[in-house]
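To illustrate the input format used throughout this study, we show a single complete record. The first block contains the structure-token representation of the backbone; no residue identities are included at this stage. The design step must infer an amino acid for every position from geometry alone.
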């Protein structure tokens, strides 16, 4: 069984028809009852009975009137049997004596609880996400699951837990950015697994997984995005020290790389312009001094040599 539109008629038209028929039948039944009580013919009693029956039937048919708000659906059951859904906003008359279950089609969002999970490296992290969804199939939402709102929340937390276990909190700080090929050319290295801090990629993966999980309930996931991500308190300080150390190493590596280039350029210029001739020992001493000046984290104190270069 699948979603299908229910039989419906304009509610204002049916209300007018039922009021006219029911009111006329009731008035006729009252008049016939009065005539029969005054000793009228047997036909008056039959007419009164028919009038009351028609009036009662009109009252029963009035139970088929229902109002559907914008972005809302009414799921109709006739004595337990699904007979269709009404998704169009307005005032309608449907099959009477039906149970009408309201299903909201509006866009909803909720934030999961802050979950404590071990990432792919085994580090405990705290993670939470916000999920934006809406109902697109009122039949599945009403009958495929017991409570579609609770179902979405449970599946969202399960998807967030699974996402955290297959990705590291952060990319490895010492991962190489390039590798040398067989011909000596450099090629991009394998970036490794996506970290949880890569918001766009992780959000796309989480959204795709949730769409698969909630398809059964007639739910469309519009967006799922991580809103809270942090190391667990017991390792937060240690991880902060680790991150600071990684940043210091990266900064020092950049400084040394630039300093080596500057020293090489200085030696090439001195040699090319013939300003001074240095043997290997003096070249090594000059390189050492320049690297100390360029790589030191404090200002260098110059020493003026008043003698010869070899004194």
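Output of the design step:
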């Amino acid at each position: 069984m699948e979603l299908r539109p229910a039989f419906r008629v304009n509610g204002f038209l049916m209300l007018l028809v039922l009021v006219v028929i029911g009111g006329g039948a009731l008035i006729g039944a009252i008049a016939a009852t009065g005539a029969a009580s005054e000793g009228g013919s047997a036909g008056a009693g039959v007419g009164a009975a028919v009038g009351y029956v028609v009036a009662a039937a009109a009252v029963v048919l009035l139970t088929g009137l229902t109002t559907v708000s914008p972005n809302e659906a009414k799921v109709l059951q006739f004595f337990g049997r699904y007979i269709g859904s009404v998704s169009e906003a307005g005032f309608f008359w449907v099959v009477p004596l039906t149970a009408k279950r309201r299903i909201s089609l509006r866009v909803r969002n909720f934030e999961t609880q802050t979950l404590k999970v071990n990432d792919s490296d085994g580090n405990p992290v705290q993670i939470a996400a916000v999920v934006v969804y809406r109902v697109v199939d009122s039949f599945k939402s009403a009958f495929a699951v017991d409570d579609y709102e609770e179902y979405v929340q449970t599946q969202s937390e399960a998807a967030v837990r699974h996402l955290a276990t297959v990705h590291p909190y952060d990319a490895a700080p010492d991962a190489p950015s390039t590798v040398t090929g067989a011909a000596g050319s450099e090629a991009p290295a394998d970036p490794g697994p996506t970290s949880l801090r890569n918001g766009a990629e992780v959000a796309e993966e989480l959204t795709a997984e949730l769409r698969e999980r909630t398809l059964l309930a007639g739910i469309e996931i519009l967006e799922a995005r991580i809103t809270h991500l942090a190391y667990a308190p017991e390792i937060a300080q240690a991880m902060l020290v680790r991150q600071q150390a990684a940043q210091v190493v990266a900064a020092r590596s950049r400084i040394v790389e630039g300093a080596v280039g500057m020293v090489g350029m200085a030696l090439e210029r001195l040699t090319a312009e013939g300003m001074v001739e240095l043997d290997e020992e003096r070249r090594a001493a000059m390189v050492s001094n320049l690297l100390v000046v360029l790589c030191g984290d404090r200002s260098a104190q110059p020493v003026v040599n008043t003698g010869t270069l070899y004194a």
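Structural context for interpreting the output: Confidence is low (pLDDT under 50) at residues 175-185. The helical segments are 11-37, 42-61, 138-143, 148-166, 199-214, 233-273, 280-295.
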